[in-house]
Write a structure and sequence with these properties.
Blueprint (H helix, E strand, L loop, with lengths): L1 H34 L8 H48 L3 H20 L2 H6 L1 H23 L2 E4 L11 E7 L9 E6 L1 E4 L2 E4 L1 E6 L4
Parallel strand pairs: 2-6
Antiparallel strand pairs: 1-4, 3-6, 4-5
Helix pairs in contact: 3-5
Protein name: GrpE protein homolog
Pfam families: GrpE
Main location: mitochondrion
């Protein structure tokens, strides 16, 4: 019984002694680590490498920033271009339809101008019919204007190749050289786009 008690006491003492030794050893190691000071400065080679790395990173950041700004600008330009295209599509969607109606307008205009005034005075029925054609032509022109289609009738103005097509030149002293002497066929523009140039005779310039 005494032997057993002694053994147990000895075992406990041995356990506590070992634990204390481990704690003391750990404390000494921690103290040693705490007393270790980091190097006061980097080597010249390491410092040079860090500076080079920093320079490369700054250049990379600048490049990425430039690419980002360029991508934003390209995106904005694309958006604006698409918006303009959509708006132009809306505005000029009726262009082909308008061109088809121009022949009708030409026919009505010829009908109005082809009847002699004497015949209108002598024939009341013809006069009423002529008046009806005039009203129809006026209504058609009103519809044209409402949808942005306007007449190009440049008599007496300076010749403009963007809106007029010169068919021939004429000599006259009454008008300034380079101006439109006569309109053979009126032109039309849809908003700011010429869809049919006016066919004109231009006063000949003196060489």
């Amino acid at each position: 019984m005494a032997t057993s008690y002694f053994s147990e006491s000895y075992g406990l003492n041995n356990y506590y002694s070992t634990a204390n030794n481990e704690r003391n050893t750990k404390t000494e190691v921690d103290a040693t680590d705490a007393n270790v000071e980091p190097p006061s400065e980097l080597s010249a080679e390491a410092l040079k490498q860090l500076k080079e790395n920093n320079k490369e990173l700054l250049e990379r950041v600048k490049q990425l920033d430039d690419n980002y700004k360029r991508a934003l600008a390209d995106g904005e330009n694309t958006r604006a271009r698409m918006f303009r295209q959509v708006e132009e599509t809306k505005i000029y969607a009726i262009q082909n339809f308008c061109k088809d109606l121009l022949d009708i307008a030409d026919t009505l205009d010829k009908a109005v101008n082809s009847v002699p005034m004497e015949s209108l005075k002598e024939n009341d029925h013809l006069s009423k019919l002529h008046q009806g054609v005039i009203i129809t032509n006026q209504q058609l022109q009103s519809v044209f204007r409402r949808h942005g289609l306007t007449v190009i009738n440049p008599v007496g103005t300076k010749f403009n190749p963007n809106e007029q097509q010169a068919m021939f030149e004429v000599e006259t002293k009454d008008k300034e050289p380079g101006t439109v002497a006569e309109v053979l066929k009126i032109g039309y523009r849809l908003h700011d786009r010429t869809i049919r140039p006016a066919h004109v005779a231009v006063v000949k310039t003196n060489n």
